[in-house]
């Protein structure tokens, strides 16, 4: 597992674009091992068939506590530098909430507010699968950054691009397609981010999704830092 990252560069990219791509965080064997957890139902608290809810075509499963390694380790290690970025964003957007420096303290706030269900998830798309644009909001307590890590090899599927769409006041939306290598992650804004304007910072709205899979199978790991109600 690689968590020795250039946070100066990642922070600059997040500030500029609302997303940043990491170097590989996990090797091929670790990616394959996480993807292989799919049939182990005791590992998960719930399974969602996306078509039943008009979310798209595909399936995902939320992990149960305790989270498997290295998922718990990634969530633990990535939270502190992301909390520093999140607090800067809150200040720029004029919001009062600030995030503690360690994950345990943040999760205690979530759990005390009734948000106790873990949110890291394993997603699987077959040919024809896709994910509509959405935001991962599970209650009042929302950490403003999350990540998606590609477990599959890019050559194992066609299509299935990770898509971000940013909406700005009185302007048309900005789409971005983010290619990933196996083990790489895209860190991105959950629902909104600060953007520098002529009169200070304004809020841009962010949504994300996955384009239609043309062939093969695409598996990803999602790490969200707030738990669900």
Note down, in words, how this protein is organized.
By secondary structure, the protein is an alpha+beta fold. The chain has one domain: q2cbj1_9rhob like domain (Jelly Rolls), CATH 2.60.120. The chain is 22% helix and 34% strand. The chain has a 7-stranded antiparallel beta sheet. Strands 3, 6, 9, 10, 12 and 13 form a 6-stranded antiparallel beta sheet that branches. Strand 9 (162-167) and strand 10 form a beta hairpin. The mean pLDDT is 97.
Q: What brief labels describe this structure?
A:
globular; 22% helix; 4 helices; alpha+beta; Jelly Rolls; 7-stranded antiparallel sheet; single chain; 6-stranded antiparallel sheet; 15 strands; 229 residues
Describe the structure concisely.
By secondary structure, this protein is of the alpha+beta class. Helix content is 22%, strand content 34%.
Low-confidence stretches: none
* Overall CATH class: Mainly Beta
Named CATH architecture: Sandwich
Strand arrangement across the biggest beta sheet: 1-11-7-15-5-4-2
Strand content: 25-35%
Q: How many β-strand stretches?
A: 15
Number of helices: 4
Which range best describes the helical content: under 10%, 10-25%, 25-40%, 40-55%, 55-70% or over 70%?
A: 10-25%
Class based on secondary structure composition and strand pairing: alpha+beta
Radius of gyration, taken over Cα atoms and rounded to an integer in Å:
17 Å
């Amino acid at each position: 597992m690689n968590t020795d990252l250039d946070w100066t560069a990642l922070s600059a990219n997040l500030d500029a674009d609302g997303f940043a791509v990491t170097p590989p965080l996990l090797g091929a064997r670790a990616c394959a091992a996480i993807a292989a957890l799919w049939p182990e139902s005791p590992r998960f608290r719930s399974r969602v068939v996306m078509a039943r809810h008009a979310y798209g075509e595909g399936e995902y499963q939320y992990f149960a506590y305790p989270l498997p390694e290295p998922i718990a380790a990634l969530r633990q290690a990535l939270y502190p530098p992301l909390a520093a970025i999140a607090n800067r964003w809150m200040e720029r957007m004029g919001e009062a909430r600030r995030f503690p420096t360690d994950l345990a303290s943040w999760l205690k706030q979530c759990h005390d507010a009734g948000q106790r269900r873990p949110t890291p998830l394993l997603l699987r798309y077959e040919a024809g699968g896709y994910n509509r644009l959405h935001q991962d909001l599970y209650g009042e307590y929302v950490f403003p950054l999350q990540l998606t890590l590609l477990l599959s090899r890019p050559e194992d599927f066609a299509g299935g691009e990770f898509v971000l769409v940013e909406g700005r006041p009185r302007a048309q939306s900005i789409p971005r397609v983010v290619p990933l290598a196996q083990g790489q992650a895209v860190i991105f804004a959950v629902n909104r981010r600060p953007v520098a304007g002529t009169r200070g910072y304004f809020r841009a709205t962010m949504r994300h999704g996955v384009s239609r899979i043309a062939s093969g199978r695409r598996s990803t790991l999602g790490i969200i830092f707030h738990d669900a109600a």
